[in-house]
Write a structure and sequence with these properties.
The chain is mostly helical and 538 residues long. The chain has 27 helices and four strands.
């Protein structure tokens, strides 16, 4: 009897499993918006320099009273290349001659300008407050928005390393609840951060707890991420203040701690830690919730121990991951590196798109809901196409579509809003579909004995890509197109690294290095037989 059959003795997919699955989905729905929170809490409104003649109510005079706001703005703020008021400079002195068109043409000298030394005036019709308006993160400080997102992603990477070790030491349940508690408290506290530095520290700390909460991802839970994106779009549309948005997505996490206490510790972890009695106790508890009344009689320590003896033996003889890199006939280092690169590239393009909605247009609420809906649809479509076109073809096709759509979108003018949004939607959907295909391909490609370790390394590369994605937006100071060109090129390079990987469609799952080698020999034999058949028929 296998471990899975032992779980069937505890009730299989019963009330407890359904409760656990629903709880995880709700938690994921509320935690995933914390990734893209800065789309709304750090939205950049229209702004201009503060000027005394316009914005100081104490200034009065017959001339200023007779002039309109547009006229005062014209003589106080220079125009940019699009004939709109500049956002980061003002005239040192009012340029009264600009009120007369004829003199504007005759005047050849450029008036002296200066930065916004007295601060900015923001358009608060869309967002009454964001962290941008709170701490003036515009002009020379505009890149600090990307720094906040990078810090959160860096925290996520470090947290995956730290809490993975702690969960091996103290158990999955206690670490999961601790991360949930911290994320709720820290992002609640971030809503009241008195300075930008403290806000950055709190967001980095919150990021430390994020990855472990999402390490339980299956297809249904991955779908809850997309629903979480749509939820945030609707929530941000109803709540425009960044303080309130932070509280709205953070305080419910503290409430979810109450039902989360009913979760059970991982039975496999208890077995590895030689806590068989506690593991049997947890199994009986699950069986009781699932309606198994005779659980204490059937799930005895002797019965469980005899059932999982093979699992106990496998734990004691578990091979080192380094054996994988010394087995060139089975799976060489280059294949592993290609897998790592694909996950890295996929993360760079995905987070580059979903973290920068404001670059697509002004209606970021609609874009957030649209991106959530398209990622959900793309994952379903990807799972359907995997059955027909294979793992490699799936990833190559969708990665190519994503890269091309990003690059084409980069060079489209801002006026073509409908086409830009359509291409961005196609891009994020294709990236999501390729990522879903890779997840399945990775499971089938890696031997079971190394899957956990190598899966952790792949996840580390994904988090590294998530860190790089917002960091690339700091290059906007050099070129408005440069970050998007990099996103597109990296995505197209992912197509090349998939080509050397073997196809795993309709192949048995591999558990050992020997299985990998046998599958490789079998695939070569099938190809040789197909070639021989074609030659004979010809």
């Amino acid at each position: 009897m296998s471990f899975d059959e032992l779980l069937d003795q505890a009730g299989g997919l019963g009330r407890f499993q359904i409760f656990q699955l629903v709880l995880f989905c709700v938690i994921n729905l509320l935690t995933y918006p914390h990734i893209v929170l800065e789309n709304f809490t750090a939205a950049i409104p229209d702004h201009r320099c503060w000027v005394q003649i316009l914005d100081n109510d104490t200034v009065s005079g017959n001339v200023t009273r007779t002039l309109s706001q547009d006229a005062l703005l014209r003589i106080s703020i220079p125009l940019d290349s699009n004939l709109k008021p500049e956002k980061c400079h003002r005239f040192i002195h009012p340029q009264w001659h600009l009120l007369h068109l004829n003199e504007t043409v005759a005047n050849k000298t450029e008036p002296d300008t200066e930065p916004c030394v007295d601060g900015w005036v923001y358009d608060r019709s869309y967002f009454p407050s964001t962290i941008i308006t709170e701490w003036d993160l515009v002009c020379e400080s505009q890149s600090l928005k990307s720094v906040v997102q990078t810090l959160f992603m860096t925290g996520s990477l470090l947290g995956s390393l730290i809490y993975s070790l702690l969960s091996d030491r103290f158990g999955r349940k206690v670490v999961y609840l601790w991360c949930l508690l911290q994320l709720g408290i820290l992002d609640t506290a971030a809503a009241f951060a008195p300075t930008f530095l403290i806000y950055c520290i709190l967001r980095f700390w919150a990021g430390l707890n994020f990855h472990f909460l999402h390490s339980v991802g299956i297809v249904l839970m991955m779908s809850s991420y997309s629903i979480g994106q749509m939820f945030l779009g609707g929530l941000a549309f109803a709540i425009r203040s960044w303080h309130t948005i932070h509280l709205a997505v953070s305080v419910p996490l503290l409430v979810l701690l109450l039902p989360s206490r009913k979760l059970v510790e991982s039975f496999r972890w208890l077995i590895v830690r030689n806590q068989l009695e506690k593991g049997v106790k947890e199994l009986r508890r699950v069986a009781h919730i699932n309606g198994k009344k005779n659980a204490e009689e059937t799930l005895t320590i002797e019965f469980v121990k005899s059932t999982i003896q093979k699992e106990l033996d496998a734990v004691q003889v578990k091979p080192s991951v380094f054996q994988l890199f010394h087995a060139p006939k089975a799976l060489n280092v280059i294949r592993c590196l290609f897998s790592f690169h694909f996950r890295f590239s996929n993360a760079v393009s995905f987070y580059g798109l979903i973290l920068n909605l404001q670059h697509l247009g002004s209606n970021i609420f609609l874009f957030q809901v649209l991106f959530g809906a398209i990622t959900l649809t793309a994952r379903i479509v990807s799972l359907w196409t995997l059955n027909y076109m294979g793992r490699r073809t799936n990833q190559i096709l969708f990665s190519f579509l994503a890269g091309v759509s990003i690059l084409v979108n980069t060079f489209l003018p801002q006026e073509m809003q409908t086409l830009r949004v359509s291409l961005a939607t196609l891009g994020v959907g294709s990236v999501s579909a390729a990522g879903t295909g890779f997840t399945l391909h990775q499971i089938e490609l890696l031997p079971t004995v190394f899957r956990s370790t190598l899966g952790g390394i792949v996840s580390g590369f994904q988090r590294t890509g998530a860190i790089l994605a917002p960091l690339l937006m700091t290059l906007l100071g050099y070129s408005l197109r440069l970050p998007w060109i990099i996103y597109g090129v990296i995505t197209l390079l992912a197509v090349l690294v998939i080509l050397p990987l073997p196809e795993t469609r309709n192949q048995p799952l591999v558990n050992t290095l020997q299985d990998v080698e046998n599958n490789t020999k079998y695939s070569r034999k099938v190809k040789q037989e197909d070639t021989s058949t074609k030659v004979t028929q010809f």
